[in-house]
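Progress note, sequence design subtask.
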């Protein structure tokens, strides 16, 4: 069993093992008839047995290796712990993509202490890619260091975003996009916040913003992006949408933040 005060490498190995194990389970079900499909916050916010079983696998592994740690998971909520560490788990980030057979979905796991995220893993099973980060030690893609883009011109920057599940939120986000889209190179909507954040980290996107994301959506990806040199800002709630996050390379962060905040206020 792991020591009471594990080093970062031990925590990272455990997170990586859990993410890859869940990824294998999910790949085994991918593009096969879904079971246990249900709705959560709205008619478009879906969950399935694949989500539930992947989280169960991750929780079982974490409990076995770190029984005193707390766990926060998207599907089963919070489990208290006394060890001073919290595992933040999204067993399947991009459920809609997954159920439709689209390849962009991920397993996201972060381990937090009283200073925030300490280690992070975002595993993209279909692509066979794994993003990792340790606080203060940089970010990696499959073991190779990554950095955010050096973009300085917002008008030539590729920006990622996502949309809420409720119709009124989506309408507000669409109105904001009318102002944002003409001011940037283009906008992408991948469908997994964790992957979007990691794509900023490795330069596949120059920036990303989204309202209504939850802690399990962003905990791992934000650390990966930060360790790759990204600037991160919270987004305040706007209209019918809950707060969110904005992440970009330092060369465009302030400009993107100004653009997005102004558009969301209109």
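Output:
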């Amino acid at each position: 069993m792991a020591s009471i005060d594990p080093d970062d490498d031990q925590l990272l190995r455990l997170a990586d093992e859990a993410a890859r194990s869940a990824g294998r389970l999910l790949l085994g079900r991918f593009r096969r008839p879904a079971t246990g499909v249900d709705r959560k916050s709205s008619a478009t916010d879906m969950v399935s047995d694949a989500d539930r079983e992947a989280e169960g696998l991750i929780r079982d592994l974490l409990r076995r290796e770190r029984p005193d740690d707390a766990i926060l998971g998207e599907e089963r909520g919070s489990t208290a712990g006394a060890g001073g560490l919290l595992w933040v788990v999204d067993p399947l980030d991009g459920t809609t993509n997954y159920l439709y057979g689209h390849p962009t979905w991920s397993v996201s796991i972060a381990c937090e202490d009283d200073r925030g995220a300490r280690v992070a893993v975002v595993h993209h099973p279909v692509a066979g890619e794994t993003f990792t980060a340790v606080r203060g030690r940089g970010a990696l893609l499959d073991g190779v260091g990554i950095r955010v883009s050096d973009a300085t011109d917002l008008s030539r920057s590729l920006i990622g975003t996502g949309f809420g599940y409720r119709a009124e939120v989506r309408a507000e986000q669409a109105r904001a996009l009318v102002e944002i889209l003409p001011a940037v190179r283009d906008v992408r909507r991948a469908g997994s916040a964790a992957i979007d954040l990691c794509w900023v980290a490795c330069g596949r996107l120059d920036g990303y913003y989204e309202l209504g994301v939850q802690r399990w959506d962003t905990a791992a990806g934000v650390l990966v992006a930060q360790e790759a040199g990204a600037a991160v800002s919270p987004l305040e709630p706007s209209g019918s949408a809950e707060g969110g996050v904005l992440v970009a390379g330092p060369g465009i962060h302030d400009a993107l933040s100004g653009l997005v905040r102004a558009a969301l206020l209109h």
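The two ends are 54 Å apart (CA to CA). Work on this subtask will continue into the next period as scheduled.
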